[in-house]
Amino acid sequence: MRKIIPLLLSVALLPCCSGDYRAEVSTNAVAAVVKTDTPAVNIDTIDVLCASEWKFEDPHADLTKKQVLDLYNQDLKPRAHELRKSSFSADTAFYLALKQLWPAWYGTSWDFNGYTHKPRDGQIACGYFVSTTLRDAGMILNRYDLAKLYSHAICTNICGEVQEYYILEDVVSYIRSRPKDIYIVGLDSHVGFLIKENEEVFFVHSNYLGASTVTKELAMQSEALNGSDVYVLGSILSNSDILSKWRGAQEIKISKD
Q1: Are strands 162-165 and 191-197 parallel, antiparallel or unpaired?
Q2: Model confidence, pTM
Q3: What whole-number distance in Å separates Cα of residue 197 and Cα of residue 44?
């Protein structure tokens, strides 16, 4: 793996394109100290996959738009908030809370100016997909303020460790070498999530290419990732301050610097 180059905050990227898991939960008050363990290896529920055999599937393809919206509002978002109060460590809880929201958004149309808050109803830009799902996972933040930032500023507002890469293979190799995590990745003019699942790395984003919808792709096969000259990578789960605010239902103020 080539040498990692630390993020230079002076780097100016183009604006981004916006500008059944049930947890055992506790209703007791959350402890003041936020426990993190960097998600345990067994939190995924399927075996290690073979990248050549993986293909995108929409688990809600048989539902109507209204049924997906009802599922999202009545089941998935409440489940995310239950996980926030659960006995899981904060990083494991947030990993599960956020990733279980994404499939409801699959197929939602991308538009540069899109900002819908309803999955599969309306259009959503890449930055708004990131900010809206973070909010719906329980982060108390202004999704408009976050989505309008340059992609590197989205990373620095939400993530702990932030690094800059110039070769996609280096990004994927680094993530594969690390414990399970969710990353925000800022590209030349795009932003989305990278996640390690079952020893493979996936890109979940509101895709402005191809069918122009929210989708999940193998990172190495993503046209958007392969077309970028820079990758600003930030780990969400390494930011103990953000996780503490999420767990304590505290406001996350967005810095516009």
Answers
A1: unpaired
A2: 0.84
A3: 7
CA–CA distance, 205 with 256 (Å, rounded to integer): 22
Q: How far is CA 34 from CA 83, 99, 237, 238, 243, in A?
A: 14, 20, 12, 12, 8
**Sign of the dihedral defined by the CA atoms of residues 245, 249, 250, 251, in that order:** positive
DSSP assignment string, 178-209: SPS-EEEEE-SS-EEEEEEETTEEEEEEE-SS
User: Which tens digit of pLDDT belongs to each residue from 26-39?
Assistant: 433 343 345 555 55
User: Structure tokens of 118?
Assistant: 């309803």
Does 10 reside within a domain? no
Number of domains in the chain: 1
**Half-sphere exposure for 63 (CA within 13 Å, toward CB):** 18
- Element containing residue 233 per DSSP (H, E): strand 231-235
- Taking alpha carbons only, the member of 190, 195, 231, 194 closest to residue 209 is 190
Q: What is the CATH number of the domain that holds 77?
A: 3.90.1720
Write out the residue range of the structural domain in which residue 98 sits: 64-247
Q: Is the pLDDT of residue 22 over 70?
A: no
**Alpha-carbon gap, residue 199 to 233, rounded angstroms:** 18
Tell me what the pLDDT averaged over the chain comes to.
Answer: 86
Residue 227 lies in a domain: yes
CB 90 within 8 A of CB 34: yes
